[in-house]
Give the backbone structure.
Amino acid sequence: MATTKIPAKRADAQRSIAAILDAATESLSRNPEASVSEIAKAAGVGRVTLYGHFPSRAELVDAAFAHAIEAGHAALDTVDLTGDPRQALARLIDSSWLLVDRFRSLLVAAQSVLPPGRIRALHAGPMERVQQLVERGQAENVFRTDLPVSWLVGTMHSVMHSAADEINAGRLSTDKAADCITATVLAAFTPPGRPVPALSDLA
Amino acid sequence: MATTKIPAKRADAQRSIAAILDAATESLSRNPEASVSEIAKAAGVGRVTLYGHFPSRAELVDAAFAHAIEAGHAALDTVDLTGDPRQALARLIDSSWLLVDRFRSLLVAAQSVLPPGRIRALHAGPMERVQQLVERGQAENVFRTDLPVSWLVGTMHSVMHSAADEINAGRLSTDKAADCITATVLAAFTPPGRPVPALSDLA
């Protein structure tokens, strides 16, 4: 009957989409230039089915990137953001960096087909988390208030992505990245006249 | 004769290339999505001639971006980089920002067809200038030495481009950008334990 057939079809489509997104995330995280054919093969679907859901490679990359960010955003729920805003920020950077580093190749894929504004827009969830912490830090007089909140949030975003670029270019090692990001972002958030924190102060 | 004809042909090609690069820089600085046809028309050459020199739009954008950076790099020769490294850095940021802002639309065009690594590679000249200043500031114990020089140079690069992104997104006004960049970069370069400079200290 039509009433049972349509939901079954929809469930099939949902399963296809989920398999495609998982395969795209996985394939692009290994090779930023993974082709649509490779991704269809890894997902166990035909190219026609894949193109039925994602009409272009750019749309597929966009969806896979959004998928990875959503999963990462959920994973960051476990980070303790209470207490001293600087220490909370250092914990958030440590955990966020693990995700950025894990999806570094997917980020390259996204950067090569999506404009920077779209990449930042896809980070809306994680950036709202940063924004709340920045606002609390400003209210507690620990982060600088002479620069706009959106600017400070954007600075953290670009410094994290800069670390990914530096690793890709062979100028930075993965194990040093989190410390470089934390030291830089904490310094950038410190109010004028106050001393820049040493990383050891936050241990 | 062949010996005189070839140089004449070469001179013609040189003139064509120069006209195409000027037109591409100009057109893409107004509209990051300017088409190859528009650029050919503005340069007063045919599409076939343009494609003879630049086989793809990406190659044309790459060349126009390189052309703009080269001109900008030459313009920065007039910036006084002597004296207190913080004040020298503030002057360099002010002058560099005028260029980034002027070519903001061309940067968007470049970001949509070139990977971040290529964009940074095209900035090799300007970044070497920053690197020399960072090294001097470190030697004079004014900039932090606990982070690699390449990291500090990359931080300045990404914070400047972040400002362009923020303006494009409508979150920052052009007149506030230079102060945001200078405040952020100077804080990021300050050694741990030292006070973050206020912008007014550098006037």
